[in-house]
Specification:
mainly alpha; 3 strands
């Protein structure tokens, strides 16, 4: 097996293991992974439009509106009128949504950190450096 093929295979396997850990942890959460992801994205993006929300989730605008409505009713998102365009609605994370998002991120980081603590410290540092360089290159490529 070529080294690139081995990296792909191992990446898929690691991704599956990490996803299983996160799903097991999520069983104690009232929200599903898509809802948690949506709340996190809105919190990072600051005042996204419904069109942006739909595009990010890769769903239709009407579906995005229904989905956002559920999160609004749960008190996790707020709908705000755009001050420059009366017809445009922007989404914002509520305090409750932000608390839930931060708690989930803290739990997920602890769970995933535990996976990597099985490695010797020297190997972890090497892997972190390699992944950092690789991700930085990928981000530069995607922004070009």
């Amino acid at each position: 097996m070529h080294s690139a093929d081995k990296i792909v295979d191992l990446s898929i396997r690691l991704s599956r293991i990490m996803r299983q850990r996160l799903l097991a942890m999520r069983d104690r959460s009232p929200l599903n992974m898509v809802q948690l992801h949506a709340i996190a994205w809105v919190s990072e993006s600051r005042g996204v439009t419904m069109k942006d929300f739909a595009r990010h989730l890769r769903i239709s605008s009407p579906s995005a509106s229904v989905f956002a409505g559920r999160l609004v009713r749960l008190g996790l998102l707020k709908r705000r009128k755009d001050p420059t365009d009366r017809k445009r609605v922007r989404l914002q994370v509520s305090k409750k949504g932000l608390r839930l998002c931060r708690a989930y991120h803290a739990k997920s980081h602890r769970a995933l950190r535990a996976l990597f603590h099985r490695m010797p410290d020297r190997d972890r540092r090497t892997l972190a450096r390699i992944l950092h360089d690789f991700v930085s290159d990928m981000e530069r490529d995607s922004s070009s």
